[in-house]
Structure formats: structure tokens, C-alpha cells
């Protein structure tokens, strides 16, 4: 009898000690899941979120509700994620700009990237496209470098915003090629791309997610992609690194949650994301853009964030690019 009482006591202690894990493995999710996007509808990050939501909802057996919370260089949306309950019902999309670039450019942000977020899974890895107007005199990366060296400060490069991947990708390009090209920031990629098409600016580094349709239609001329290997959708284009050895400005985005999420819950969502991004619909949609499904463990995503935070800190400090 004492033995039976001891077993009952141990079972009760185990139940008290691990309630969250049991709930996470069992009943989660029993209501819709909010997915916060720290950019406006129609942005590259919003596109990623909506493609993912369509594939992830069936994997988790619940509706994924997109909430766009743009503004203040991603900080409004990310702050909502950081301050949410760690119960898996509020998640966020964390693009490279939000998690690895803007924290190096803003003097004060209301959260700490490595302390206040739980990386869950990378969604996709992609590229910036180095593009020019269709009637541009530039037909190669070398053409741009040669002209920029002949006439320092003459060329202009557009970006969707100060602190965007396209902005710092261009800063890295200028630093590695020893060129002086004037940065022209816009309020969004649409306006910047329209001015590029019209020939009001000379060149642009922009996410394939946004600019791929224009490149495929001939509205802009793609010269190279920014990642470490060629894009499957633009296999004819070299990487910038083939002309500028060592250059790599690849992009990525992933699913994040607030810090403090129970490990079983993180693993449940991670597994669902990994399945979702390998679904035929997801692969086909991203293949048409030129980006590739990523996936992997929460730890691998955390390592990517940590590594790129350090990399872009160096670029930002060298270029003097800062946001208020």
C-alpha cells in the first residue's frame, strides 16, 4: 500500500511539473492562430506570410489569421510578438531586415532580438536581384563597377527603405568594390521599382519576392542575384559573388514566437512549418519567385540570426548607415 501511495504521489508531481508540455502536445491548437507581419499588405514579407499560412493551416488543423502591423522599421509588429503570451497562439514572421539588419541601425528598440524571441523555423532563403532599367546602358555587374569608378557619385541606387535588405546589400556591394553610388531610399518597393523602370534611378537591389515578375516580363533587366548560389528561377543570371568574390547578401525569413514558449510547443510548430514548406503548392509558388524553402531546427534558425546580426553590424558601422 505505501508503494501505491508513492506511485500516485509521483504521478501527481509529474502532472504539476509539466502541464504546459502536455497541453502543447495534446489540445494545441484549439483556436485560430494569429500570425503578425511587421510590414504592410503586399510587401515581400506579407507575401511570404500568406503563402505560408495557406500551407501551415492544414498542417496544424487551424486557421492562420494574418495581422499586418507595419511601421517603425519593423519594431511595431515585432514588439507585439515579443510581448505576447508564449502559448503558440501569437506568432510572427521574422524577415532578415527585422531580425538582423534594423537592430543594428536603430539606437533604441523595445526588445532584444536574442533574448525576447523564440526562433521556430526558417521558411525560405532567397536573393536580392541587382536590376537596372530595360533601356539602361548597363548589361553586367562589371559595367556598373566600371562606370561607378570612372564617375564617383554619379550613379544612384534605389531601395525600398533605409535599413532594408536592398539598402545594406548595396552598401556591402559599394564597400567591396570600392565604389561611390548615391543611395535613394523610397517608402516601399513599388515606388522604387517604378522609378527604376522609368529610368529615374540607375540601379536597385530588391527582393526577388517583389521584383521577380518585373524581371520576367522585361520591365526591368536583371544583372545578378545576391545569394551564395544562383537562383533556380533565374539560372541564367550570375551571382554578384561570381564577379565580386566573397559577396553574399542572401535573404531569409522565418517563424518566430515570444520567448518562454515550452519546448514541446516549439517542436510541434517547427515540425508543421517544415512539412508546410515542402508541400507542392508552397514549393511551386516559391519556385516561381526564385526563392527556396529552408526549414531546419529552431537552433539552426537561431544560429542564422546570430551570424547575420554580426555580419550586418559590421556593414552598417562601416557605411555609417543609421536610422533614427
Molecular structure report:
The chain is α/β, with parallel strands linked by helices. Helices cover 47% and strands 18% of the residues. It has 14 helices and eleven strands. It has helices at residues 2-17, 19-25, 44-60, 75-82, 96-101, 113-116, 141-150, 165-177, 189-198, 208-217, 240-243, 263-276, 280-289, 298-319; strands spanning 33-37, 64-68, 90-95, 117-126, 128-132, 156-159, 182-185, 203-207, 221-225, 251-258, 292-293. The strands form two sheets. Strands 2-1-3-10-4-11 form a six-stranded mixed sheet, sandwiched between helices. Strand 6, helix 8 and strand 7 (182-185) form a beta-alpha-beta unit. Helix 3 (44-60) packs across helix 12 (263-276). The radius of gyration is 22 Å and the shape is globular. Residues 6-24 have low confidence and may be disordered.
Amino acid at each position: 500500500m505505501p508503494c501505491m501511495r508513492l506511485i500516485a504521489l509521483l504521478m501527481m508531481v509529474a502532472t504539476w511539473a509539466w502541464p504546459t508540455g502536455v497541453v502543447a502536445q495534446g489540445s494545441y491548437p484549439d483556436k485560430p492562430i494569429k500570425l503578425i507581419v511587421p510590414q504592410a499588405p503586399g510587401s515581400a514579407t506579407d507575401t511570404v506570410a500568406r503563402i505560408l499560412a495557406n500551407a501551415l493551416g492544414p498542417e496544424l488543423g487551424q486557421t492562420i489569421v494574418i495581422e499586418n502591423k507595419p511601421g517603425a522599421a519593423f519594431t511595431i509588429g515585432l514588439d507585439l510578438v515579443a510581448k505576447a503570451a508564449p502559448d503558440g497562439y501569437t506568432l510572427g514572421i521574422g524577415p532578415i531586415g527585422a531580425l538582423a539588419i534594423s537592430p543594428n541601425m536603430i539606437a533604441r528598440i523595445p526588445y532584444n532580438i536574442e533574448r525576447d524571441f523564440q526562433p521556430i523555423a526558417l521558411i525560405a532563403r532567397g536573393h536580392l536581384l541587382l536590376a537596372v532599367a530595360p533601356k539602361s546602358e548597363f548589361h553586367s555587374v562589371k559595367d556598373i563597377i566600371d562606370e561607378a569608378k570612372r564617375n564617383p557619385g554619379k550613379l544612384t541606387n534605389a531601395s525600398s527603405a533605409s535599413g532594408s535588405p536592398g539598402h545594406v546589400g548595396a552598401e556591402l556591394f559599394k564597400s567591396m568594390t570600392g565604389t561611390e553610388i548615391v543611395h535613394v531610399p523610397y517608402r516601399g518597393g513599388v515606388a522604387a521599382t517604378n522609378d527604376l523602370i522609368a529610368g529615374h534611378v540607375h540601379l536597385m537591389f530588391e527582393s526577388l519576392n517583389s521584383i521577380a515578375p518585373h524581371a520576367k516580363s522585361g520591365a526591368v533587366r536583371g544583372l545578378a542575384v545576391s545569394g551564395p548560389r544562383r537562383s533556380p528561377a533565374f539560372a541564367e543570371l550570375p551571382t554578384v559573388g561570381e564577379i565580386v568574390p566573397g559577396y553574399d547578401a542572401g535573404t531569409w525569413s522565418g517563424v518566430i514566437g515570444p520567448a518562454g514558449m515550452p519546448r514541446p510547443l516549439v517542436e510541434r510548430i517547427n515540425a508543421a512549418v517544415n512539412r508546410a514548406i515542402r508541400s507542392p503548392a508552397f514549393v511551386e509558388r516559391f519556385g516561381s519567385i526564385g526563392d527556396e524553402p529552408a526549414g531546419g531546427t529552431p537552433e539552426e534558425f537561431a544560429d542564422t540570426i546570430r551570424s547575420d546580426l554580426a555580419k550586418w553590424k559590421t556593414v552598417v558601422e562601416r557605411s555609417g548607415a543609421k536610422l533614427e
